[in-house]
Amino acid sequence: MKPYIYLRALKHAEHTVFCVSDGQKTYFDQQFNRPVAYSSGQQVKRSILQSLTDNLNVQMAPITFNYNITSQKQLENKEPWSPCDPNYVDQLLGGWMRAGDGVTKKRRSPLSISAMRPIHPLLAKVDDENLTFDRSDRPDNHPVNVRMAGSDKLLSEEEIEAFLTEHNRTLPRRNWIPNNARTSGLFVYDIAIDLRTLFSVSTNQHEPEISKEMIESLKSKGWIESENVFGKCLVLPKEEREKVIPALANALINWRITSNQARTFSLMETLAVAISDNANVLAAAIRAKLIDDGEKPKAKPIVDETAGADLFVTLPCSNYIVTEIESANALQHAEQKLINLMMAFDYENQE
């Protein structure tokens, strides 16, 4: 059995935003000369791990946030610390990096996760809209405070009225929120699962993933001493793997970006999933085809069951792609395929 599982999924997004801290993230596509929206691999990974821990009803690992107080009595933000503890499933599958506290410890995640981006630049768009925070319909219920710049003193009602009269102004109970980008279209993300390290933690102390104390703690909890292509390791016991694998399979397919505000919610429904041990066939199974109709280029989305991957197509996919292979239980079958592949790997005897 090959040690990698590759997954590509196609999602539909409708007038939404993938990140609300600084608005919708975009990059510029040089070939088609247009901005396209994306969700970073880090955000996709976080969403998957959140879905995973929710499925298992466990907490994410506690992260220690560090600050220094400078000589100017200011707080200086320092690097957060991970516990480097594979007992937490989000650490085991998400990896960690901890420096500045003795020997640096790092574990590369067994999940390699791409950004979620358009299946083709012509099959997604970014729109700007101006929003309002409006309470102008009932002005008496919503007071207005006015201060002179540089002062905390509120102007009296008489002073406000005098200012408005003198300068021919009004004070509406309305704020404009300009330049809010939203995106719609068809988006794909790719994931590679390294089965060799999925449930295995290296015990090498030259470039340590975990401390010696953690090694002994894991052994006491039934972790199995073994060896993989990277060297000696400890493997999560089978009964624990059998709890994690179904939850992971579900999270890889059914995750949602949960940081959206209410006005930007989109189902972001999964339209199709392709699974294989060959990354190249994924790109063929879910793809787009450029069409030149003589006026301007267009793109056509394609799901292709003959490309060599196991392809699972959902009912909503037929809204956007002509297909005859959609089914109501496609995602359940995709989950089961992932479960079967992860269960079949011999984690204890890799050599």
Structural features, described:
The protein has two domains: 4-62 and 81-133 and 179-344, no CATH class; 136-142 and 153-178, no CATH class. The chain is built from eight helices and 18 strands. It has helices spanning 41-56, 89-94, 157-167, 195-198, 212-220, 238-254, 279-285, 330-344; strands at 4-16, 26-29, 34-37, 67-69, 75-77, 96-98, 105-107, 111-113, 117-118, 124-134, 174-194, 200-202, 224-228, 231-235, 270-276, 286-292, 297-303, 310-313. The strands form six sheets. Strands 1, 8, 9, 10, 11, 15 and 18 form a seven-stranded antiparallel sheet that branches. Strands 12-14-13 form a three-stranded antiparallel sheet. It has a two-stranded antiparallel ribbon with strand order 2-3. A hairpin with a 4-residue loop joins strand 2 (26-29) and strand 3 (34-37). The model has no long low-confidence stretch (mean pLDDT 90). It comes from bioreactor metagenome.
